[in-house]
Specification:
The protein has about 400 residues and is of the alpha/beta class. The chain has helices at about 5-20, 60-70, 80-85, 85-100, 110-120, 135-145, 160-165, 170, 195-200, 225-230, 260-265, 270, 280-315, 335-350, 380-395, and strands spanning about 35-40, 40-45, 105, 130, 150-155, 175-180, 205-210, 235-240, 250-255, 330-335, 350, 355, 365-370. It contains 15 helices and 13 strands. A 7-stranded mixed beta sheet has the order 3-9-8-7-6-4-5, with helices on both faces. A hairpin with a 2-residue loop joins β1 and β2 (about 40-45). About 50% of the residues are buried. The structure holds pyridoxal-5'-phosphate (PLP).
Length: about 400
């Protein structure tokens, strides 16, 4: 018997297929690297978060193997029962020294870090959360789990945030959190951290910055948005991922004041009721941080050069992008079906770029999210630009302003 649920779901999936919006897994048949194998053929990967090309770095891989030898595959426990191993303490020390903050605590993902933070630090109706409209989905869901009053300000509209903070309802609230992505994952723009800090301080709010796309990417030594703006180590809490620049495995963390991390360790449900990070991820991520500390100048210079080269190339092609300084360079093409068809056409040219549509981005703003790595060569990027030019010719609708 087919249930009503199954019929409803099947109809929705059929609709996605009929309108060209059905997502297919893009299977990678070799290690995650700027050059990899898909569909049995070599491709340049222009859509991973492997910003420093460390996911398959020999030191990172060797460290992961060493951890399996020392600690086995996993913890078989949450942190507070018997899932805290020496490798977790070593990783958290490494993170707090790298960030330059008093405390850090890890989670199985940055999704879980965000979902741990918001309902734990602002649990009641007396609390208030202020959030940028384009914050990552994990932040949106985390806010939904809190009973706090919600204030969603238009993307990057800090004047609106200010007036929300000044509203009588906000003034009367107890714990106030302002939460923002450091680098916005679909736009590639950077939050105005100095202004956000100023507003947070003025209104007795805790600023929380999700540094997932900024860690290992922004700042002279890759310490993220705060370093980029020269406001490192001053009262901000950051959440970030180990699943992007820092080795690309999985795992997230919260770094900041001791009292905040201590409280999360005691109360955040995503750490109390979910297993700790696998040891291989702990050692692998530590090795990635070491590579960043030792070779950061070279890696970050390559990333910066590549970002500037690729962004200039996209602008020269006259494609619709959002100017910026980060390795996330969206090419906005309009409809979801266009983005998905362009993705397929680019793959045929040996370039993998992921097409995103609604609900990941607003309707009518579907895009190819190009992501540049320090591991790309200029020749790789020129090949990608040539492929983009060729494919864009076949999709004139992609050139219209959206
Ligand atoms: C801004 C931001 N926050 C959080 C996450 C979730 O990170 P993780 O994969 O570690 O759960 C992502 C991942 O896409 C992200 O882009």
């Amino acid at each position: 018997m087919t249930t009503t649920l199954e019929k409803t779901l099947a109809a929705e999936l059929a609709e996605l297929r009929a309108t060209g919006q059905y997502k297919q897994a893009n299977v990678v048949q070799a290690p995650q690297a700027p050059h990899t194998i898909m569909d049995g053929r070599p491709v340049i990967n222009l859509s991973s978060n492997n910003y420093l090309a460390l996911a398959n770095h020999p030191r990172v891989v060797a460290a992961g193997k060493r951890a399996i030898d020392e600690f086995g595959l996993g913890t078989a426990s949450v942190r507070f029962i018997c899932g805290t191993m020496a490798c977790h303490e070593a990783l958290e020390k490494k993170i707090r020294e790298f960030i330059g903050c008093p405390a850090a605590t890890t989670f199985i993902s940055c999704w879980d870090a965000n979902v741990g933070v918001m309902p734990t630090l602002a649990p009641t109706q007396q609390d208030a959360i202020f959030s940028d409209a384009l914050n990552h989905a994990s932040i949106i869901d985390a806010i939904r789990l809190s009973k706090a009053e919600r204030f969603i300000y238009k993307h990057a509209d800090l004047a609106e945030l200010q007036s929300m903070l000044e509203s009588p309802k906000a003034r009367a609230s107890r714990n106030k959190l302002i939460i923002t992505d450091g680098v916005f994952s679909m736009e590639g723009d950077v939050a105005d951290l100095p202004k956000l800090k100023e507003l947070a301080e003025k209104h007795d709010a805790q600023l929380i910055v999700d540094e997932s796309h900024a860690t290992g990417v922004l700042g002279a030594t890759g310490r993220g948005t705060a370093e980029h703006f020269g406001v490192l180590g001053e009262g901000t809490v950051q959440t970030s991922t180990l699943g992007k620049a820092l080795g690309g495995a999985c795992g997230g963390y919260v770094a900041g004041a001791q009292v905040i991390c201590d409280y999360l360790v005691q109360k955040a449900r995503t750490t109390l009721f979910s297993n700790a990070l696998p040891p291989a991820v702990c050692y692998g991520s530590m090795a990635a941080i070491d590579v960043l500390i030792e070779d950061g100048a070279k890696l970050l210079a390559a990333l910066k050069r590549n970002v500037a080269h690729f962004r200039a190339g996209v602008a020269d092609l006259g494609l619709h992008t959002i100017p910026g300084i980060t390795p996330i360079c969206p090419v906005i093409v309009g409809e979801t079906a266009t983005a998905i068809s362009m993705q397929k056409a680019l793959l045929a040219e040996g370039v993998f770029v992921s097409g995103f549509g609604f609900p990941v981005v607003p309707k009518g703003e579907a895009r190819l999210r190009c992501q540049i790595s320090a591991g790309h060569t200029i020749e790789d990027l020129d090949k990608c630009l040539k492929a983009l030019a060729k494919v864009a010719e076949k999709f004139p609708e992609a050139r219209k302003r959206h």
